[in-house]
């Protein structure tokens, strides 16, 4: 790798421990390849946070030093209501990193874990002239109505995006290219317009990012799915035989939270146990990091416990099948 790329996670102070787990897993599988950074409001930095990041060679960048932080904090929250305003720091960071002399960056959500090396994928992005890269999905965006699309165009002087949907859990940026294109300013305009014309629309952030990323033409590329494999609970089948570099826990079944009875019911109903097992990969990684016991009461399962879990879901499935037969 010709240049050390910055791998960063940004948000509020609640992301610190899982973000450390994510960045440590990246270092474990790509030793020395990435300069790792966590960004949040320094007013919330504790001695424990500072010691943990220092222990693992992770740089802390105070969000208050990011020129756009005040604008970030004043942004309206997304309809889903699950994320604080600080999540928008992720889109202000590339230009700030450019001012610090870092040309390239890899943005990660705090709820990911790396399970295999991916230097070759980043090398290809560098060699291929990628400016903005996200994982692309099969569906395309569509405006809720022609009126919304027209108003969006009037406010932004750009078309409502009709490109493939993107997931922003992992992203690759040419920071200098984004700085030249005023990426964050353009994102603010697009996001603000969407919140004005369709405030109840879901995925507003990602639609705005897709809209402004089109400004980079052929430099707007797709990241391989292997860089952002979803551990989304029970919404789709997980394919362990596929190429997997980074797992993204992008649902509400976070691995540091306890399993609930409904998760077992969903596993039985969907015939899909992968989400229950995928959390083990995060727990196995996290258990070796200082502060794990204080952050969560969840622990990796021993082999016998895993077998009991499999048997439990098997029994639920058998009981469900029997009820279906009796109901005929």
If you had to describe this structure to a student in words, what would you say it looks like?
With 328 residues, the protein is of the alpha/beta class. It has two domains: 5-226, Alpha-Beta Complex (Spore Coat Polysaccharide Biosynthesis Protein SpsA, Chain A), CATH 3.90.550.10; 252-326, no CATH class. 43% of the residues lie in helices and 16% in strands. It has helices at residues 16-29, 47-55, 69-73, 89-99, 119-127, 146-156, 175-180, 183-197, 204-213, 261-270, 274-286, 292-295, 303-326, and strands at residues 5-10, 34-40, 59-62, 104-108, 112-114, 132-140, 164-174, 220-223, 229-230, 246-248. A seven-stranded mixed sheet has the order 3-2-1-4-7-6-8, with helices on both faces. A three-stranded mixed sheet has the order 5-10-9. Strand 2 (34-40), helix 2 and strand 3 (59-62) form a beta-alpha-beta unit. Helix 8 crosses helix 9. It is globular, with a radius of gyration of 21 Å. One of its GO terms (molecular function) is glycosyltransferase activity. It holds the Pfam family Glyco_transf_8.
List the main descriptive attributes of the protein structure presented here:
Spore Coat Polysaccharide Biosynthesis Protein SpsA, Chain A; 2 domains; 7-stranded mixed beta sheet; 328 residues; 3-stranded mixed beta sheet; alpha/beta
């Amino acid at each position: 790798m010709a240049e050390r790329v910055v791998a960063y996670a940004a948000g509020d102070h609640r992301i610190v421990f899982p973000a450390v787990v994510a960045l440590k897993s990246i270092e474990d599988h790509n030793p020395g390849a990435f300069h790792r950074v966590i960004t949040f409001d320094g007013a919330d930095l504790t001695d424990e946070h500072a010691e943990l990041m220092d222990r693992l060679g992770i740089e802390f960048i105070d969000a208050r030093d990011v020129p756009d932080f005040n604008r970030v904090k004043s942004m309206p929250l997304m309809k889903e209501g699950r994320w604080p305003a600080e999540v928008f720091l992720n889109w202000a960071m590339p230009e700030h990193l450019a001012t610090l002399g870092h040309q390239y960056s890899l943005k990660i959500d705090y709820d990911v874990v790396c399970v295999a090396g991916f230097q070759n994928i980043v090398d290809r992005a560098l060699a291929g002239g990628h400016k903005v890269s996200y994982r692309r999905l099969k569906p395309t965006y569509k405006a809720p109505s022609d009126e919304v699309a027209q108003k969006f165009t009037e406010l932004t002087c750009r078309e409502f995006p009709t490109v493939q949907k993107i997931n922003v859990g992992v992203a690759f940026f040419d920071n200098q290219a984004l700085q030249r294109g005023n990426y964050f300013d353009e994102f603010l305009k697009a996001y603000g317009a969407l919140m004005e014309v369709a405030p109840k629309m879901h995925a507003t952030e990602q639609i705005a990012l897709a809209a402004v990323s089109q400004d980079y033409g052929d430099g707007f590329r797709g990241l391989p799915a292997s860089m952002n494999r979803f551990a989304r609970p029970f919404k789709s089948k997980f394919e362990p035989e596929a190429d997997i570099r980074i797992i993204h826990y992008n649902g509400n079944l976070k691995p540091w939270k306890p399993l609930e009875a409904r998760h077992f019911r969903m596993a039985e109903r969907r015939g899909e146990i992968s989400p229950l097992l995928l959390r083990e990969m995060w727990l196995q990684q996290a258990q070796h990091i200082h502060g794990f016991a204080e952050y969560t009461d969840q622990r990796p399962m021993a082999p016998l416990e895993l077998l009991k879990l499999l048997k439990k879901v098997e029994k639920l499935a058998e009981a469900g099948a029997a009820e279906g037969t009796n109901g005929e």
